[in-house]
């Protein structure tokens, strides 16, 4: 299968500082690709190169087979970008925002009307189509930005962060529109890079030990050892099982 996005030794330097160092990955049709990492890892810089905002210092990438350095304009025609901040036109209605975006991208009106209705219904904005964007909450503005990006009919969608309404909407969108989606987020951080207070809380979650096992399996350093992680996961499982049995017996005794 041919990759829709392919990064090849993508590198960006700012003076002597290397922000992105020879990144390589591929994204295929219909795939939700999570581009994760802590702050300062180079996620945003990589996406800015892929979307044509800045040029790579070394290496390159292709979008639908078009080189972002040699064919920047053509490669951009295949994508849509949803930034972290919902920069919708506040004085326009929800519907007017979609129609303006469709007009700017040359989408025929007869085609975009039906698609706009579908997207607004999908994301729960259809009843608000006549409302000004100014009165929408932050989460609803992010949904509107998603609609505005998708109404242009992109083949690749870049999301700067998950919507406030949760990642379930992203998964729903990817299943319905069938396009590759590059999801950029810094919400995951190794325990060793957390603040001290957060490191005290981390051992209370079984996810911390599961994450340690996964990192070790991929040859990465982990905050907890393998044996400690296995032991704690077994203990969490036993505690959960015993608590479940206790509650089950309690409910049966009360006739629930």
Largest sheet: 4 strands, antiparallel
* Domain count: 2
What's the order of the H and E elements? EEEHEEHEHHHEHEHHH
* Percent strand: 15-25%
Rounded radius of gyration (Å): 23 Å
CATH topology of the largest domain: Rossmann fold
CATH architecture of the largest domain: 3-Layer(aba) Sandwich
**Total number of helical segments?**
9
The helix/strand class is alpha/beta
The separation of the N and C termini measures 53 Å
Helical content band: 40-55%
Query: What is the residue-averaged pLDDT?
Result: 78
CATH homology superfamily of the largest domain? P-loop containing nucleotide triphosphate hydrolases
Q: How are the strands ordered across the major sheet?
A: 2-1-4-5
What would the principal axes of the Cα set say about the shape?
flat
CATH class of the largest domain: Alpha Beta
Which regions are unreliable across 5 or more consecutive residues at pLDDT < 50? 164-168, 183-189
Notes on the protein architecture:
With 256 residues, the protein is an alpha/beta fold. The protein folds into two domains: 5-185, Rossmann fold (3-Layer(aba) Sandwich); 191-253, no CATH class. Helices cover 42% and strands 18% of the residues. Strands 2-1-4-5 form a four-stranded antiparallel β-sheet. Strands 3-8-7-6 form a four-stranded parallel β-sheet, with helices on both faces. The chain is flat. The protein starts with a strand and ends with a helix. Residues 164-168 and 183-189 have low confidence and may be disordered.
